[in-house]
Design a protein that fits this description.
The chain has one domain. It has seven helices and no strands. Helices cover 82% and strands 0% of the residues. The longest helix has 26 residues. It has 135 residues and is mainly alpha-helical. Its main location: membrane. InterPro entries: DUF350. Keywords: Cell membrane, Membrane, Transmembrane, Transmembrane helix.
């Protein structure tokens, strides 16, 4: 049985499956903390929500990539990926806090593409900073 789990194809499939599950879970959490419904807004053509959500997807996937690259076991990868996600989520709240003159969620829901783009860039940028510190 150890040959089965030691097989590179099986390990890749396992890490891929865990990454997809983590991505879905983390996106659900982001859906809960935003004031708008991501997938409904995207279906209606809200490009700002699509950019912000795409940035979150890229950011989460990038953090998971770093956690897989730097850890030997799937459990370590999940732990570091979860920690990285919490830092990314914290960055989202900092972005909201640093713009007291308007609400980020409201601007994105209203299809303010400048705010949606900045949200995308913040998620992607922070994912590289967070990922580079993952051990």
């Amino acid at each position: 049985m150890s040959d089965f789990w030691g097989n590179l194809f099986v390990e890749t499939a396992a890490r891929y499956s865990v990454a997809i599950l983590c991505l879905v879970l983390f996106l659900v959490i982001f859906e809960l903390v935003t004031s708008y419904k991501n997938w409904e807004e995207i279906q209606q053509g809200n490009f700002s929500v699509a950019m912000a959500t795409g940035g979150k997807i890229f950011g989460i996937a990038n953090i998971i990539r770093y956690s897989i690259e730097h850890n030997d076991t799937i459990l370590e990868s999940i732990a570091w990926g979860g920690y990285g996600f919490l830092l990314l989520l914290f960055g989202y709240f900092i972005f909201e806090f640093l713009t007291p003159t308007y609400k980020i969620d409201q601007e994105i829901a209203n299809d303010n593409r400048a705010v949606g783009f900045i949200s995308l860039v913040i998620s992607v940028g922070l994912s590289y900073v967070i990922g580079s510190s993952i051990q």
